[in-house]
Amino acid sequence: MMKKILVLNHFPTVYPPTSGGTLRYFHIYNELSQYYDITLLSQTHGRKGGLFQFSSTFREYKVEKDPRHQQIMQVLQNGEATYEFSLIINVELSNHLTLYKKYFDDLYRTSDIIIHESPYMLGYDQNLGLDDKPRIYNSQNHEYALAHQIWENQKARKYLPSIYELEKKLTEDADLVFATSEIEKDNFVSMYNLDPKKVKVAPNGIHPDEWLQNKKKSNINPKAFFIGAEYPPNIEAVGYIIHHLADKCPDIEFMIAGGCCNPFSKLKKSNVHLFGRVHHKQKLKLFADVDIAINPMFTGAGVNLKTLEFLSAGIPLFSTHCGARGLNLIEEQHYIHAEKEDFAEKINQFCHDKKYLQEISSSGQKYINDNYSWGNIAKSIQEELEEIIPF
């Protein structure tokens, strides 16, 4: 009889997933559903709720936002829509008898293991520390450290001590904590004074066989590609591409996809092309059509999934240290390192050197595909779970 796992998250997955958190959220649990019966409990906007059955052992309940959501949002932010408050509101809502709470209580009773994707939904799990069901924190980021780094709204920053306490409680009471890299593991251990033995690494990954054959390039002007969700570090990177790189690299066509395009939708620049959100097939075509990938990230936590994907697809990558964090990549072997002050210079220097770019991309592709497949990551997680699951 398969053990039943219930996973709490503040955002839903999409199928097929195309960016950031949804890629990790879907693929890890899709792979783990070979070993366990898995239910994702997520939230969604509008009327997109309901039960989504991915397979006989893998499903997702997308719970529509509670009516209180709008009321609390108004009080919190006076109508100002920001990334920070979309997270904080989950903490506030968990104190109320919401529809999500009802779903959780029903599913909790028949579940053997409870997994939290972040600390924001912790208030719903009122039996944490009181029952014998294993708890797992499968972190996408070190959430408190990330919030402390990127939250700008001063009213939102007053919640930082609460986020710290929630993540501290979750890491202390969890039987296992998964971090996306050794760096994040060390940060969890030191910040929350945890036993290092219960913090494991479950990196982000890829499916090496999903990429289309990269076309033989005949682009007169090289195409540089960036993709990202509507998320502050990605928006910062797009602003840098548009206002800095595009002017200093006039011969490069900058192709930008994902929700990160939204704040720049009215902008017109001859060598910048904004695609907005793309579906999976469009994304694969873009990956096959571009000459280089760029990842000018300056803030963030966890491991950048776009870095893994760019390299796995065999696209020569130009990235900052922040964009390449957590993967033990070797500069000038797996990717071309560039920072804010010399990014344009590096692109102009190497973008026409096809032999060098081919060597770099082949080396990076082999390294990622050998070490970061979702199947191998899920198998490692399963082995760790088996150590703590009561018979």
Automatic annotation (TrEMBL):
It comes from the Bacteria. Residues 148-209 form the Glycosyltransferase subfamily 4-like N-terminal domain. Keywords: Transferase. The keyword Transferase applies. One of its GO terms (biological process) is lipopolysaccharide biosynthetic process. GO terms for molecular function: glycosyltransferase activity. InterPro entries: Glyco_trans_4-like_N. The keyword Transferase applies. Gene3D superfamilies: Glycogen Phosphorylase B. This is Glycosyl transferase family 1. It comes from Bacillus canaveralius.
